[in-house]
Design the sequence.
């Protein structure tokens, strides 16, 4: 019986230590947000007005998260990092969309020029 009580006590102490250790070691992970911001910059988000806005917001949210983490508000910091990552990813998508739109417009113009050069009548779009 005494051995059982000792085992229960040791187990309780161990469990308490593990729970306390997990709660106290909550660190923020800013790598995902930083990577998303870097990706947005690399695909040209600063040159696309709407993408540039979201990129700037992502950078500001990252800085706010760092400040919150420094004050010990880890939960709010993690939430701000999630917002930062989402805004950076949106900047990437908007930048790529703008690039795709420009490329398709250029392709249409090239087709029009080829039609003119080869004297092919343009389609009217009617069936």
Sequence:
């Amino acid at each position: 019986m005494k051995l059982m009580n000792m085992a229960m006590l040791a187990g309780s102490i161990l469990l308490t230590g593990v729970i306390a250790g997990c709660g106290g070691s909550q660190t923020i992970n800013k790598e995902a947000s930083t990577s998303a911001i870097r990706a947005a910059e690399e695909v040209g988000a600063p040159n696309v007005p709407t993408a540039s806005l979201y990129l700037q917001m992502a950078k500001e949210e990252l800085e706010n998260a760092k400040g919150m983490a420094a004050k010990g508000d880890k939960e709010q910091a993690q939430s701000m990092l999630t917002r930062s990552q989402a805004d950076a990813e949106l900047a990437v998508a908007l930048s790529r969309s703008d690039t795709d739109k420009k490329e398709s417009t250029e392709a249409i113009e090239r087709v029009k020029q080829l039609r003119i050069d080869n004297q092919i009548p343009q389609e009217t779009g009617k069936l």
About this structure: The two ends are 92 Å apart (CA to CA).
